[in-house]
From TrEMBL:
Organism per entry: Streptomyces finlayi
Protein name per its UniProtKB record: TQXA domain-containing protein
Pfam families per record: PLipase_C_C, TED
GO terms of biological process kind: lipid catabolic process
Domain Bacterial phospholipase C C-terminal residue range list: 344-414
Protein's UniProt keywords contain Transmembrane helix: yes
Keyword annotations: Membrane, Transmembrane, Transmembrane helix
Domain of life (superkingdom): Bacteria
NCBIfam families, A to Z: LPXTG_anchor, TQXA_dom
Chain positions covered by the region annotation Disordered: 1-24, 429-456
GO molecular function terms listed in the Swiss-Prot or TrEMBL record: phospholipase C activity
Transmembrane segments: 467-485
Domain Thioester: 111-208
C-alpha cells in the first residue's frame, strides 16, 4: 500500500521487496539482460520467411488495417511527481495523463502501463486486446479497468473524487498522478508513492477499492480478417464486431471492378449494424487476384483498451475517448474459376501468452498448400486452416514476408512487446523518467546514448556496459539459449493485496 497502509500491509510490502512473494533481483536483472540481448539482435536480425507453393491462386496483396482506432502519442498533459520503489531501487518520475490524436478525427486520453519503457511522442499506436499487450495473463488487468472507470478523468468532479479518497481537496495534477500511481501498482508490480499527500491518499484508495472488471470490447474489428475463394463465388462471412450502432461498408480502392459487398441474401450493403455478416461477391470472369472490404464508424473507444506501437514505445491504456474514427479491413484472395491448386489466405497477430507471432492460413483451393517458414515445413490441406506459431524474444523486431503462388507476397512486421520492462542491473540503478521523448524513426530503444545524453532517460543505466557484455555472451550461445531464459513476470494474486 502507500503511506496510508496498515501495519500488516506494510509488513507484506517488506516481504514482497525481499522476494518472499515476488520476482527476485536476479530475475529482474535477467529480464534486463534478455531485453538488451533482443535489442542487440534488432539491427541485424529481422526474421525472414519464405512460403513456396504451387497453384494459380493469387497476386500481390498489401497489408491491411487489423481494426480499431489508430492514434499518435502527443504529450503528457497533467502530471505530478511519484517515487518508484522496486526491488531495492528507488527513483522519482512524472506520472499523469497523456493525450493522443486519432487518425481520421478524434482524441484519446491514456495512462502508461509499462513505466520503465520510454513514451515516444509522435509514435503511432493501434488498439489491441489484452492478449497482444503487456496486460496478457495479468490477473489484475481488470482492476486497472475499474480504476479508469472510477477515477480521473472519468470522474471529473474532483470534489466527489476527493470525498471518496478522504481528502479535503484534489487538483487535476494530484488526481492524474494518484490515478497513474495506482495503475502502476497493478500493471508493473511496483510501489508508486506520489509526492502530493492528496494524490497519495487517492492512489491508496484506488488500490484498496479496485475490483476486477471484464476486458473491454473492441471499438471495431472484422472476423476473420482474411478469406479465400474462387471467382464467381460468394465468399464469407465476415462478422462485424463493434461498439458503434452503424458502420459504413465499401470495397477497398484496389478491389477489382464488379466485386460487391453483400449480405446473406446477396443484397449490396452500404452500411450495417453490429453483428452483421458480410460476404464478397466475386464476378465469374475476374482473373485471380486480391481485394478487401473496408468498414468505418465513429465510436468511443472503451476504457481499458490497450494501445501498442509497432516500434518500442510505452504501452498505453485508454482512459478517455471522444467520438473517434475507427476502421477495419478484411482481405479476400481468389483464384480463377477454372484454376486448380491452392488458394491461401494469410493473417497474423501477436500471441503474448506464447511469446510469438501466430500466422493463420486458410486454403480454399483443391490442393494442399505446402510451404517453408524459418526452416520449418508446413502444409495447409485443401479446404483447411492451420495456425503456425513463430517464437520470438521479448523486444525482438520481426519483418516476416510470406510468398506464395503467382507472386503472392504478404508482409507482417512489428516488435514483440509483451512484458513490462524489468530492472537492467542488480541493485540500485538509474531509472527512466516517465516523460515523453521524441520518436526515433521507428527504431527500438538504442543500446547507447548520444554524447551528453543521460542513459537513464532512454531506459538504460550505468550498468549497461557490463550487462551488454553478458547479453553478447548469451548471443554467442545462440538464440535458443536466450529463449530458454525468457520468463513471464508473475501476475499479482488476490492474496497480495
Amino acid at each position: 500500500m502507500f503511506d496510508e497502509a496498515s501495519a500488516s500491509e506494510r509488513r507484506h510490502r517488506t516481504a514482497r521487496a525481499t522476494g518472499a512473494t515476488r520476482t527476485t533481483r536476479t530475475t529482474r536483472a535477467l529480464r534486463g539482460v534478455r531485453r538488451l540481448a533482443a535489442l542487440a539482435l534488432v539491427p541485424g536480425l529481422l526474421l525472414a520467411g519464405t512460403v513456396a507453393g504451387t497453384g494459380t491462386a493469387t497476386a500481390e496483396e498489401q497489408p491491411r488495417t487489423p481494426g480499431g482506432v489508430a492514434a499518435t502519442l502527443s504529450r503528457l498533459t497533467v502530471h505530478g511527481t511519484v517515487t518508484i520503489r522496486d526491488a531495492g531501487e528507488e527513483w522519482k518520475t512524472e506520472a499523469g495523463l497523456y493525450e493522443m490524436t486519432v487518425t481520421g478525427g478524434g482524441t484519446l486520453q491514456s495512462y502508461g502501463v509499462d513505466l520503465r519503457t520510454a513514451a515516444r511522442t509522435g509514435t503511432t499506436y493501434k488498439e489491441v486486446g489484452w492478449d497482444e499487450s503487456s496486460l496478457h495473463q495479468n490477473k489484475n488487468a481488470g482492476k486497472i479497468r475499474w480504476i479508469l472507470e472510477h477515477s480521473y478523468p472519468q470522474v471529473n468532479d474532483l470534489s466527489e473524487l476527493a470525498e471518496r479518497a478522504d481528502v479535503k481537496s484534489l487538483d487535476v495534477e494530484a488526481a492524474a498522478a494518484g490515478t497513474q500511481a495506482a495503475i502502476w501498482r497493478f500493471s508493473d508490480d511496483v510501489e508508486a508513492v506520489p509526492a502530493d499527500r492528496s494524490a497519495r491518499k487517492l492512489a491508496a484508495y484506488l488500490e484498496r477499492a479496485a475490483e476486477r472488471a471484464p476486458e473491454p470490447q473492441a471499438s471495431l474489428v472484422l472476423d476473420p480478417p482474411a478469406l479465400a475463394g474462387r471467382a464467381g463465388d460468394r465468399v464469407g462471412p465476415v462478422t462485424v464486431r463493434t461498439r458503434a450502432d452503424r458502420v459504413t461498408v465499401a470495397p477497398s480502392a484496389d478491389a477489382p471492378h464488379g466485386m460487391r459487398i453483400v449480405d446473406a441474401e446477396d443484397r449490396v450493403v452500404l452500411d450495417v449494424g453490429r453483428g452483421a455478416r458480410l460476404y464478397f461477391h466475386l464476378p465469374e470472369d475476374v482473373p485471380s487476384g486480391t481485394g478487401a472490404l473496408t468498414v468505418q464508424a465513429d465510436a468511443r473507444v472503451s476504457l481499458g483498451r490497450a494501445l501498442v506501437s509497432d516500434t518500442h514505445s510505452q504501452t498505453q491504456i485508454v482512459a478517455g475517448s471522444s467520438a473517434s474514427t475507427v476502421t477495419a479491413e478484411a482481405s479476400v484472395i481468389w483464384a480463377d474459376k477454372k484454376a486448380t491448386g491452392a488458394v491461401p489466405a494469410l493473417s497474423a497477430k501477436k500471441d503474448c501468452a506464447k511469446g510469438a507471432v501466430a500466422l493463420t492460413g486458410t486454403n480454399a483451393g483443391d490442393a494442399p498448400f505446402a510451404f517453408e517458414l524459418l526452416g520449418a515445413r508446413h502444409t495447409i490441406p485443401a479446404h483447411g486452416t492451420r495456425r503456425v506459431t513463430i517464437p520470438l524474444q521479448e523486444d525482438q523486431a520481426y519483418d516476416l514476408t510470406v510468398s506464395g503462388p503467382d507472386g503472392l507476397r504478404k508482409n507482417f512486421k512489428g516488435v514483440l512487446d509483451c512484458e513490462t520492462a524489468g530492472a537492467v542491473a542488480i541493485g540500485t540503478a538509474d531509472a527512466p523518467a516517465n516523460r515523453p521523448t521524441p520518436a526515433t524513426g521507428g527504431n527500438p530503444t538504442p543500446l547507447s546514448a548520444a554524447p551528453g545524453e543521460n542513459l537513464a532517460e532512454t531506459g538504460a543505466s550505468g550498468a549497461t556496459t557490463p550487462i551488454l557484455y553478458i547479453a553478447l555472451g548469451l548471443l554467442v550461445l545462440g538464440t535458443g539459449a536466450v529463449v530458454l531464459l525468457r520468463k513471464k513476470k508473475p501476475a499479482p494474486t488476490p492474496e497480495d493485496h
